[in-house]
Amino acid sequence: MRNDSLADLGFQPFFQDQIKDESYDVGRISTAANGIYTIMTESGKIKGIALGKLHYLAAGPEDLPCVGDWVRFLRTDHGREGIIHHILERKSLLSRKRAGEKQEVQVMAANVDFVFLVSALNRDFNTRRMERYLTLVYESGASPVIVLTKKDLAEELEEKMTAMEEAAPGVPVIAVNSLTGEGYDQLERFLTRGKTISLLGSSGAGKSTMINRLLGKAMQKTLETREGDDRGRHTTTHRELFVLPDGGVMIDTPGMRELQLWSGSDALQATFSDIEQLAEQCQFRDCKHESEPNCAVKEAIQNGELSNERLKSYRKLGRELDRLELKEKYGAHRASQMMRIRHFGKR
Asked: CB of 116 within 8 A of CB of 248?
């Protein structure tokens, strides 16, 4: 059985600086399900549970251990199990709004350095969906990397690469073929010792195949995509952390049919940095980019420098985040009323 050092598992000075005494062991959460955790340590994996006090003080799921967390624990049962007493402060946290009307967060992964946003180069290719993923990643504190899979099936590859680069200014966009390994050399700079990568993408995007390729063995089950629309079925059913043989740590997550944002106006500005920069050149600071004179955003659309679809996506995600913020403060009913007043000027 392979035992990895804490550094191999992603332990960095940021976490070391938080430890003032050595009365507890340190480990990293690799799986979490129904209150039972797998803790990776320098001496191997053990099962763990959270101290009752952690549950009592938790205001929500984000206050309990999740995959990727560094924790301090005490060993029990002759060292074979552990009780988690502390969660070290996180560098980053991937989370989204849980499906449904309730304002509940769904925690996905913690302490991620890079997020590989995986999209297949088939009929499921969608730049607007990628903008939603980018907003989530920027809000988390991690750095996004777009990985376009199934390069061998791509039609109009260059056009799709350009479209994705325009949808994600400044973000690396890499096309790969997981069957042959083509393009994987471009991922190596992110897969280094001590760094943690998480994979996000829709079902059937090729995340599990990527995991298997990087691990050098079949660890994740894969399924064929559906005929007719190239949409996949869920193959990863839970979140799990893997140590890669050539360096780095990777967290796989279940494919998502729907991504509901949680919060983050700053993240929206980062996702649409091109529109934000153009808006600074508008004549009016509160320009809505509709009928105002000397609007730099509308001029960019007319000149072909910016697509109208991207502006529509910017507005749509902005309205969604506005409503989430109002809903959290005032409740669903009042939030809907305030949104109508804000956008239509009437009750």
From this structure: no
